[in-house]
Design a protein that fits this description.
about 90 residues, elongated
Length: about 90
């Protein structure tokens, strides 16, 4: 039981880190966070350094975040349905 609690804490901590990384990648991709050293005046849409950094962060962090969140949702549904007692009708 204690091990399960520690595992939940670690999973939620990892989920928080992945969420922050995905949010930062999304903000960099959209240009909400731009640093002074970024190449912002690019003629090519995909040559701007802030967009490249955003995609490089969003893809791995966003994918791992979505996968972990989906796995937790499925696990939660299974644990809730298994904790409910089934009512059997007598004939």
């Amino acid at each position: 039981m204690c091990l399960d609690r520690r595992l939940k804490i670690l999973v939620h901590l990892a989920l928080a880190v992945l969420g922050v990384g995905a949010a930062y990648g999304l903000l960099r991709l959209t240009g909400a966070i731009v640093f002074p050293s970024d190449n912002t005046w690019s003629m090519n849409f995909f040559n701007a350094s802030w967009r490249d950094d955003g995609v490089r962060l969003l893809v791995p962090f966003g994918g791992a975040f979505a996968g972990t969140a989906a796995a937790l949702a499925v696990r939660r549904k299974k644990s809730v349905s298994s904790s409910r007692p089934e009512i059997k009708e007598k004939m």
